[in-house]
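Could you join me in thinking about how sequence relates to backbone shape in a protein? We need material for that, and I hope you will provide a protein of your own picking. Once you have written the record down, we can walk along the chain together:

…
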Amino acid sequence: MGTLLQAIRWTTNLGYQKIIFESNCKMIVDNITSATIVIFDFHVSMSKCRELLLKFSNSRVSFVRRQANNVAYTLAKTLMFNVWNQSFDYTIGI
């Protein structure tokens, strides 16, 4: 949950308006996209995520299985060990 919140804060600070957040944690995606927050332990983080998502003109949070998103998983795993401040402005066509 903390990683999604950090990603939302980071992209908000960068000034992006159209963004898709993907997660391989279905429970978090379901809680963010549902009308109510199901798990109380995440209430504060979920509320903060929802509040920040409203700042984007167009955003989406979606579930993607780790197996289907191996590039992002490998990148995230690598970035945990290499802290850097870089953004990439490109879209991958599917």
Notes: The mean pLDDT is 78.
